[in-house]
Design a protein that fits this description.
mainly beta, 63% strand, N-acetylglutamate synthase
Length: 102
């Protein structure tokens, strides 16, 4: 995690693991304020992602939302994802994040 809106729960301490099988993306994440999280979605022909995420925070709060992520390939060959996300449920806040391959 490189950057996140103030109303997000992930941080630089959150580590994501992504997996791709054809045009389906899945993943897990944890660390910082996140005890455990999962995501599932699709990869579009332009390389962008649309997915849903769910997690349990260290305070045992269950959260979910949707995200659209656009890839950027860095000069060192690593991947940076520019994300626009929105919480589900009563709190429909939205925000942006930048996630970078380590």
């Amino acid at each position: 995690m490189v950057e996140n809106s103030g109303n997000g729960e992930v941080s630089e301490k959150t580590i994501f693991h992504y997996f791709q099988d054809g045009d389906v993306i899945s993943g897990t994440y944890e660390g910082g304020e996140i005890e455990r999280g999962t995501l599932i979605g699709v990869v579009h022909k332009d390389g962008s992602l649309d997915f849903r995420y769910n997690h349990v925070s260290v305070n045992k709060r269950i959260r979910s939302g949707t995200c659209h992520s656009t890839p950027e390939f860095l000069p060192d060959g690593k991947l940076r994802m520019h994300e626009k996300w929105q919480w589900n449920g009563l709190e429909r806040d939205s925000g942006t994040s930048i996630v970078e391959e380590i």
